[in-house]
Amino acid sequence: MRLIKKGCNKFFSLIEKYLSINWLNPVLTIYLNLRSFPFAQAVKMPVWIYGRPRLMCLSGKMQIEGKVRTGMIRFNFINIGSPSNMGIQSEINNQGVIIFHGAARIRTGNRIVVGYKAVLKLGGNIIIGDMCNLGCFKSIQIGHDTRIAHRSQIFDSNYHYVANFTKRVVPNIYRSIVIGNYCWICNSVSIAGGTNIPDSTIVSTNSLLNKDFSTIEPGSIVGGIPAKFIASGYKLVNNRRKEMEIAHFYNTRDNEVYHLPEDIPQEDWFNW
């Protein structure tokens, strides 16, 4: 009886999983690839589009630096367990250049705008969560293995010029953004032009970044409005197997703390 119950639970879990997964849209997939990529890359269909996102403008270009694989980039992709929102479809408006340096997962409800002559560089194995806004009008660079959680926004422009009558100047509204490798941008974070954060930086929830943090050491935590340095010596565990190992530890033990093994290189914990 126990085996039957276990089998039924697994069966219904699979049904729930596949019923909730967004459907692959072959028409928009073919259109975006052929419209945006060089033909030699486009025919491999590197981008898979799910659902019915709005392709507002594809007059710009996309390209992949490195090996091209079918379905390596997934756009408007729903993820089981994340706060996905299929009621609001993603949008993309590309009039500049988007360069992918590897695989990427861009989830639901996102707005991506790349202005004329602007360059958006996305590192390999990045994840952009649900309901994010990304406006690139000059230059935004996001490193590999970086995660951007839901409801975050990244803009390298203030959109409107503001005159300073005291100094009699009108500052430029465009400033580049650089986000390093292995960073974790927690949910509801705002990143403004001029921001530069080093590798393995963790940005706490509801923070506002608007300056250069490149002088802090990798593996630091920043946060606040405006954000400031909080602590160093931290890194996101970016290894699926290790995450499962830690989760099992806390699910089977009470009032204990997981300790990192000393004989395992740090790199094993932060690659996936």
What is the ordering of alpha helices and beta strands?
HHHEEEEEEEEEEEEEEEEEEEEEEH
Mean pLDDT: 89
Q: Mind telling me the C-alpha Rg?
A: 21 Å
Sheet with most strands: strand arrangement: 1-4-7-10-13-16-19-21-22
Based on Cα principal axes, name the global outline. globular
Structural class, by secondary structure, is: alpha/beta
- Measured as a percent range, the helix fraction is 10-25%
What would the keywords be for this entry?
alpha/beta, single chain, globular, nine-stranded mixed sheet, seven-stranded parallel sheet, 272 residues, 17% helix
List the helices and strands and how they pair.
Blueprint lengths: L1 H19 L5 H11 L2 H4 L4 E3 L4 E4 L3 E4 L8 E3 L15 E4 L2 E5 L2 E3 L4 E4 L4 E5 L2 E3 L4 E4 L2 E4 L4 E2 L4 E3 L21 E3 L4 E2 L4 E2 L4 E2 L4 E2 L4 E2 L10 E4 L4 E5 L7 H13 L20
Describe this structure in words.
The chain is α/β, with parallel strands linked by helices and 272 residues long. Helix content is 17%, strand content 27%. The strands form three sheets. It has a nine-stranded mixed β-sheet with strand order 1-4-7-10-13-16-19-21-22. The mean pLDDT is 89.
